[in-house]
Amino acid sequence: MNQTIARFAAERLPVEFIHHYLSGTVDRHMNEFPPEVIRRAEKASRQPHTYKDFVTWEDDRFPKRLLDIPNPPYCLFYKGDLEVLQERTTALVGSRELNRISRSLVRHYHSLIEETVSVSGGALGIDGLIHEAAVSSERPTVAVLGSGFNHLYPAANRELFQKIPKQGILLTEYAPGTTVKKFQFLERNRLVSGLGDVLVVVQARQKSGTMNTVGHALEQGKTVFAVPGSPLDPLAEGPNRLIEEGAIPLTNSDQIIRDLWIAR
Questions:
Q1: Could you give phi then psi for residue 58, rounded to 5 degrees?
Q2: Whole-angstrom Cα distance, residue 195 to residue 207?
Q3: What is the residue extent of each domain of the chain?
Q4: Is 147 exposed, middle or buried (0-12, 13-18, 19+ CB in 10 A)?
Q5: Mean pLDDT of the chain, nearest integer
Q6: Residues ≥6 apart with Cβ < 8 Å to 88
Q7: How many C-beta neighbours within 10 Å does residue 38 have?
Q8: Strands 248-249 and 223-226
Q9: Which of 109, 130, 155, 221 is the one with CA 20 to 30 A from 23?
Q10: CB 160 within 8 A of CB 134
């Protein structure tokens, strides 16, 4: 059963199809899906390939936080320790650009990385600094990738991706052979926010992929924190606007940590 679901995931079948498949009602709902979906389902059913290191809805180890989000994944491929997903988590995201204070900002919020499991998107910029800080502190971190493990992206972070599974985990909803496509990183963002108990925006331009992650977090009912910055700093545009719109300004991480401890 699980291998079949992994093959469906490799063919990117919609979650509604999986619901019907698992409930045994696919035949009665075939007319609800376009021919292309049926064709891909048939292709997946004939696929002899066997996958390793994946977890599906059917597995107790599947991260419960993702079961209730809109458009949840039904299969995750991983490298590392799934158990870290059971700990308190903080999703930390930000710009792919860095400026002279980016590293200092990440260091300022080191307690979130050291006392919770950090979740980010494995990208250049703030994401990479978050994962690097966790690895340097020998703390688990979760990198949610937007492609398959045979096509790790960005190439500049490949050494980092080799280190993360030693204490943390690499996660992706894409089968190992899935190549890099731009839209997949936007899809990935909903998993980054979904895996965090809260979301923290460190730096971001007002129009950016980071703000897309914020949109997912709000849709998922997550609390959003934003690091305020100078109105003259382009990378503070996003957080400052979020604060104007109701996000919680974050000047230190103590409040988040206390709240997460209480929630546990």
A1: -75, -10
A2: 23
A3: 2-51, 78-263
A4: buried
A5: 93
A6: 115, 116, 117, 197, 260, 261, 263, 264
A7: 15
A8: parallel
A9: 221
A10: no
User: Whose CA is closest to 229, among 215, 241, 246, 216?
Assistant: 241
Work out whether strand 89-93 and strand 223-226 pair parallel, antiparallel, or are unpaired. Answer: unpaired
DSSP state of 24: T
CA–CA gap between residue 80 and residue 149 (Å, rounded): 12
Task: Convert the pLDDT of each residue in 36-80 to its tens digit.
Answer: 998 998 898 888 888 999 999 989 999 999 999 999 999 999 999
User: Could you check whether the bond before residue 154 is cis, i.e. omega within 30 degrees of 0?
Assistant: yes
Question: Among 94, 82, 75, which residue's Cα sits nearest to residue 17?
Answer: 75
CB 170 within 8 A of CB 143: yes
Question: Greatest CA separation found in the chain?
Answer: 59
Residue positions counted in the chain: 264
φ and ψ of 56, to 5 deg:
-120, 175
Q: Which CATH class is domain 78-263?
A: alpha beta
**Per-residue pLDDT tens digits for 141-168:** 999 999 999 999 999 999 999 999 999 9
**Alpha carbon distance 32, 194 (integer Å):** 28
How does pLDDT run across 74-133, given as a tens digit for each residue? 999 999 999 999 999 999 999 999 999 999 999 999 999 999 999 999 999 999 999 999
